Amino acid sequence: MTYHWYTSNIWSMTVINKKLDSELAYEALVDLLLSGTIDAEHALSERRLSEVLGYGRTPIREAVRDLIREGVLESHPTRGTIVRPLSIHDLQDLYEIRIAIEGLAASLAAKRGPVEMLEPYKRSFEQTLNNKNNLDVAAVHDYGVDFHKKIVTLSGNKRLIEMYHPFRLRFRLPFGIVRTRTPERVVQAVSEHLEVLKAIMSRKSDLAEELIGEHLRKGRDFRIDMLMNRRYYKI
Questions:
Q1: Is the pTM of this model over 0.90?
Q2: For the chain, which domains are there?
Q3: CB pairs under 8 A, 24+ apart, for 226-233?
Q4: How many CB atoms lie within 10 A of CB 204?
Q5: Which one, of 96, 97, 143, 99, lies nearest residue 118 by Cα?
Q6: CA-to-CA separations, 53 to 48, 57, 136, in angstroms, rounded
Q7: Cα distance between residue 234 and residue 104, in whole Å
Q8: Going by C-beta distance under 8 Å and a sequence separation of 6 or more, which residues neighbour residue 130?
Q9: What's the sign of the alpha-carbon dihedral 134, 176, 218, 118?
Q10: Angle CA 53–66–69, to nearest 5
Q11: Are 82 and 76 in contact (CB under 8 A)?
């Protein structure tokens, strides 16, 4: 019995460690892709990714497989695995889903979420708007991304949270350039975030859903413009 317990525990710990390695490799690969250091048009090498990220080939292979399943990467018999290209039609489809998901999340967060957890975002947005002439555009953008994720989390709906991640990731990868958009658009986005936040914290669910929908539609239009004028951007 002691031997059985010992071997069972060793097997369980091995499974857990493999799962952790796979999850960590996934997160590291996503961060690497978002950093813009990988050319989206070149095939990904599992061996090279393993060397760069410091994980074994198996966790890397599992991370790549998960990203293929989520529609972020795609595998070709001749070209290998690459970041999946994004068309205007893809972008419109994704935004329709995102507007629905985040609109519902904002509404649920306003109705039942622990809205006091948004207070740090409120202070940060107000400080940004009071300091328009000295912005770290990339940092402000990244904080805005975190704000969107927070709203979905505050909805308290586990299924909604699970659905949200692949859609956000799907269109973020080909558009890392968004982090370098003009300060004017950044300030406008922060102002929109603040209005959404105030609606949620005031428990105005319908208004929160309406405002986040308007904000996302502006983001959609910005990205469509990027796709239509790719030659002007360093993507």
A1: no
A2: 2-83 (1.10.10.10), 88-232 (1.20.120.530)
A3: 226/175, 226/177, 226/178, 227/86, 227/87, 227/88, 227/91, 228/88, 233/177
A4: 17
A5: 143
A6: 8, 10, 27
A7: 34
A8: none
A9: negative
A10: 145
A11: yes
- CA angle (63 as vertex; 58, 65 as ends), nearest 5: 95
> What's the pLDDT at 108?
98
Distance CA 184, CA 178 (A): 13
Reduced to 3 states (helix: H, G, I; strand: E, B; else coil), residue 82 is: strand
Rg of the chain over Cα atoms, rounded to whole angstroms, equals 20
Residue type at 98 in one-letter notation: R
Is residue 101 within 8 Å of residue 163, measured between CB atoms? yes
Residue owning tokens 């957890």: 117
What's the pLDDT at 233? 38
The tokens for 148 are 């969107």
Two structure tokens written together for 229: 């004028």
Q: How many C-beta neighbours within 10 Å does residue 154 have?
A: 21
What whole-number percentage of the chain has pLDDT above 90? Answer: 40
Token pair recorded at residue 134: 């000295």
Token pair 């710990």: residue: 13
